[in-house]
Structures are given as structure tokens and as C-alpha cells.
Design brief:
Rossmann fold; 48% helix; elongated; 12 strands; Arc Repressor Mutant, subunit A; 24 helices; 526 residues; alpha/beta; 5-stranded parallel beta sheet; 3 domains; single chain
């Protein structure tokens, strides 16, 4: 363990860099609460999206890295802000009129439009927990509704009333003049309508810990700030939660980064120590727009898992968290293949190399071996030319290419074969566009067929690749990439494709000859 810890203390992998920052908080003495607390926050105003998963995945990576460099126990709280009022109705859920009738009510008081749970907040919380459980995360779930209503937050709320002016000083400095006139860090929950009210607070009683306000009809009310009668606005709530729980680390998107001084300041006003933060860049949809729970753009976790194993999504999340990443269908095959490349590299790496390998962080230091003897991208192309309707249609080709492979001995490959057929039918087949070859391309392809007819080199992918390469060179393709592009566009209906020698080895020499002849005859383009 000592050599591993030494390597971890010097690793440049970003989870270890963040873990060392957290450890530095306690270099003089261990935390009084007995553990280091990592937290992720979630606003259940809509169905959970993949960015929410990313926060828990990445925080878990840092937590596991911390456990290598320190013996201090750790906990991870996944906190749902489900007492927030529903400000607008998400576009991607049923029963829009039902939800509109409950606007401004806490999410845990809004009926579930799916009819499955006591409330919309409970439904979205259950969705989040199901997603997180799919990935085997170790976490403790906290509901803001329970946190406020149970009295667990009462001491902090009383302190917020006593230090109201200091909190308001922080908040007002960040607001426009018009907003300053009506703003309060406290949001009363109307005793009759149950709605979260955005109204001016007329008086805060520091001794009685109450707030006085007029509702929308002009009636005056006085409510205690405790017991779930009042909640904090979301920015003060962020910092107050840090103080109440003793949070040591929380990450959030770049869109929150300008609020960091506010969160920190309120945490300190309420007697807490500001945590370490990590701001990540946002995920973008196909159009380069930020993904959003309410819009439902981008990919969902379920959509990713329809076409690839969970580990590939973990790999995607690990990569460059401070760089904005486009999250669309075409990133899935690349993530699958790169993940398996890293798995294959892992056993031969030294300690430092292993700690820098994404698979160490995805699997908590114990990654499995890869049995993917055929890349996912190649399986997609095989599904294309073989017209496979299910994974069994691919296994006949796979066994010829790798006689020792089988669904039982290669479960990752077997799963990927099923995913590949599904992905091809849903996202590749509808976009394919075949074309006829030019005269130059036709001559080269006829030459390639002639060489394949007398080929005696077996299914050696590298030897076949060299032969295909030589054909393109001899027929004057410059750059040579144009030759391979022609093969892909004429034979596969796409501008990009696999290493063609590997494709021939997998699909078969005779089968490739027949495919090229169909392309030359114009059958594919037709």
C-alpha cells in the first residue's frame, strides 16, 4: 500500500490532484465529524439527465482516490433540492395541464404526472436513485423536504435569521437594483395554498426566529423559519447546506462558477468552513447547446445504456472534465473502443501509468480484463454488410476471425455485438448514402478484387491492410486517405470506416470480394 500511496501522492491524474486538495484541509488534524464528506446536489425539476450522473461518477472517482492517500473515513451525500417550487413545467413529461395547476408548489407537493409515486419530486428522485444504483455507486440519499421538515436544518435556519443582515449583504451585492427591492433569502411556504412564495419579507425576528410577510392577496402572515415552514433561496441554500452538513467537497458546472463566492460567503457567515470545489465544463447537444433537464436535449442515461455498457459512459465522464464535450450518439462507439484500449494497456503499465489510466478510476483500482477481440466500430461495419438482425448474425463472422472466441468466453464482446446491431439499425442505417465509384476508383477496386482472389495470406489483418494500402498507392491516390474514403463511401455508405484490412479479416475474403463486386455493379448505390 505504501508504494501505491506514494505513487498516488505524485499522480497527475485529475482525481488524485483533487483528492490531495481535500486532504490538505486536514493536514493538521482530522475532521471533528469523523469523516470527510463529499456531496453532490441535484435539482429534481425534470427527469435526471446524464450530467447529473456525471457529477456522482466524477465525485466518486475523487473519493476513491482520496481513500488511497488517506485513512480518514469518507461519505458521499447525494442531495435532492426537492423542496424547490416548480417554476416551470418540463416539456418532456405528460399531463402538462396537471403540472401547470401546481406551479410554484414544492416538487414533493406536485402530483406525479406518471402516476407512479406520491409526487413529481419523489418520481424524479426515484429515477435518479435507479440510475445511480445501475452503476453501483455507494452513496447516501438526502431529500431537502425531509431535511427541512424533520428539523435537521433548524439550527442553521435559526442562525440564518440571527445573521440575516450579513446574508443579505452578500446576496444584494450580486443583484440588480430592481431585484434588491424585493429580495429575501427566505421563501415562505404558504400555509393554505402550499406554494413557495417569492414575496418581500417585512420583518425577521431574530429572537423568535420568525418571518413576517404579506401574501399575494395582501394578508399578513408570521411563520417560524424552522420545521419546513420556510425554505432558503437556492443560492443561500447551497452555502447553508455546506455549513449544516460540514461538506468538504462539491463539484458543479461552469454555469455555477460565478456564484462560488456567494456560496462560500454564506457558508462562512453560518459558521461553516467553505468546501473544496471543482467546476466542470458543460455537456453540449448535437447543436452545441447546453443540455437541459427541462428541454430534454442531449442523451439520457437510459439512451446511452441502450447502445453500450455502463463502463463506456464512465470513460466518457473521466475524459477532460474541464473541457466542454459534445454529447451525442456518435460519441458512443468511440468511447467503447477507447475504453477497451485502456483496459488492454492496463496490465503492462507501471504503478504511475495505472493510476493515470482512466480504467483505474472507473473501476476503483481493480479493472477487469478486456475480451473485445473485435472493436465496436468494426462490429458496426460488420452489422452493415452482413445485414445482421441480431448478435447471432455477427457471431458466425467473429468465430471465423477469432476461433477461440465465444459468447461464454467473451461476455463483453457478446454484449457489444447485441449493442452494435441495435446501434446500427437505429443510428447508422438511416444515414447511409452509397455512391458509385469514379473510373479511377473502379480500376483500383477491380485490382483489389483480383488480388483478393489469389490471396493466400489467411486472415492476417495487418498483411491485408498492407495489400489494400499498396493498391491505393499504385493507383495514384494522393493523399492515400482518398482511397480509403472511396472504399467506405462505395461499400459502406459512410465517409469514415474501419481499418480495411481488419474489416476483410473479420468479414472474410470471399465475402469482401462479393461486396466489392456489388458496389462496382451499382447494386449498393441503387
Amino acid at each position: 500500500m505504501s508504494s501505491l500511496r506514494d505513487a498516488a501522492m505524485n499522480s497527475k491524474a485529475w482525481p488524485f490532484e483533487e483528492a490531495r486538495r481535500v486532504l490538505k484541509r486536514y493536514e493538521k488534524k482530522a475532521p471533528e465529524k469523523g469523516y470527510v464528506l463529499f456531496e453532490t446536489g441535484y435539482g429534481p425539476s425534470g427527469l435526471p439527465h446524464i450530467g447529473t450522473f456525471g457529477e456522482v461518477q466524477r465525485t466518486t472517482m475523487i473519493r476513491r482516490a482520496f481513500e488511497i492517500i488517506s485513512d480518514i473515513p469518507t461519505r458521499l451525500f447525494c442531495f435532492s433540492d426537492d423542496l424547490d417550487g416548480m417554476r416551470k413545467v418540463p416539456e418532456n413529461v405528460p399531463q402538462q395541464e396537471l403540472l401547470k395547476a401546481n406551479i410554484q408548489k414544492p416538487l414533493t407537493s406536485v402530483p406525479d404526472p406518471f402516476g407512479e409515486y406520491p409526487s413529481f419530486g419523489d418520481h424524479n428522485n426515484a429515477m435518479l436513485r435507479r440510475f445511480l444504483d445501475t452503476f453501483g455507486f455507494e452513496y447516501e440519499f438526502y431529500s431537502a423536504t425531509e431535511f427541512y421538515n424533520s428539523g435537521a436544518f433548524d439550527d442553521t435556519l435559526r442562525l440564518a435569521a440571527e445573521r440575516y443582515e450579513k446574508i443579505m449583504e452578500i446576496m444584494l451585492a450580486s443583484l440588480r437594483e430592481e431585484r434588491q427591492q424585493t429580495y429575501s433569502c427566505f421563501l415562505p411556504i404558504h400555509p393554505e395554498t402550499g406554494r413557495v412564495l417569492y414575496v418581500p419579507i417585512k420583518h425577521v425576528d431574530k429572537k423568535e426566529h420568525t418571518v413576517t410577510f404579506d401574501d399575494e392577496t395582501g394578508r399578513e402572515w408570521t411563520l417560524p423559519v424552522t420545521g419546513g415552514n420556510v425554505k432558503l433561496q437556492w443560492k443561500p441554500d447551497f452555502g447553508a447546506r455546506w455549513a449544516a452538513l460540514g461538506v468538504d467537497f462539491e463539484m458543479y458546472g461552469k454555469d455555477h462558477s460565478t456564484n462560488t463566492p456567494i456560496y462560500d460567503g454564506i457558508c462562512e457567515v453560518l459558521g461553516g468552513r467553505k468546501p473544496e470545489h471543482f467546476t466542470y465544463e458543460l455537456f453540449l447537444d448535437e447543436q452545441g447547446q447546453k443540455i437541459s433537464k427541462s428541454k430534454g436535449n442531449g442523451l439520457t442515461i437510459d439512451e446511452w445504456l441502450t447502445y453500450a455498457a455502463t463502463e463506456s459512459l464512465g470513460y466518457f465522464m473521466y475524459q477532460k472534465p474541464k473541457t466542454a464535450k459534445r454529447l451525442w450518439w456518435d460519441v458512443i462507439p468511440k468511447a467503447v473502443d477507447e475504453y477497451h484500449q485502456q483496459l488492454r494497456a492496463f496490465p503492462d503499465q507501471d504503478e504511475a501509468g495505472k493510476l493515470a489510466n482512466p480504467v483505474w478510476h472507473i473501476h476503483g483500482g481493480n479493472p477487469p480484463a478486456s475480451d473485445m477481440v473485435v472493436p465496436f466500430a468494426m462490429l458496426l461495419n460488420l452489422a452493415s454488410v452482413a445485414g445482421a438482425k441480431d448478435k447471432d448474425g455477427l457471431w458466425g463472422f467473429i468465430r471465423k476471425y477469432a476461433p477461440d472466441a465465444s459468447p461464454e468466453a467473451n461476455p463483453q464482446l457478446d454484449q457489444a455485438a447485441a449493442f452494435a446491431v441495435r446501434y446500427f439499425n437505429d443510428h447508422v442505417a438511416p444515414t447511409r448514402t452509397f455512391r458509385a465509384p469514379t473510373e479511377k476508383e473502379r480500376a483500383a477496386m477491380e485490382d483489389l478484387v483480383a488480388r483478393l482472389r489469389v490471396w493466400d495470406g489467411g486472415l492476417d489483418a495487418e498483411a491485408l491492410q498492407s495489400m489494400v494500402f499498396a493498391v491505393g498507392k499504385e493507383h495514384g491516390f494522393e493523399p492515400l486517405r482518398d482511397w480509403f474514403t472511396a472504399l467506405y463511401e462505395v461499400l459502406l455508405g459512410a465517409s469514415q470506416g474501419p481499418r480495411f484490412g481488419g474489416f476483410i479479416a473479420l468479414y472474410g475474403v470471399a465475402e469482401t470480394i462479393a461486396l466489392i463486386e456489388r458496389g462496382l455493379a451499382g447494386e449498393l448505390a441503387a
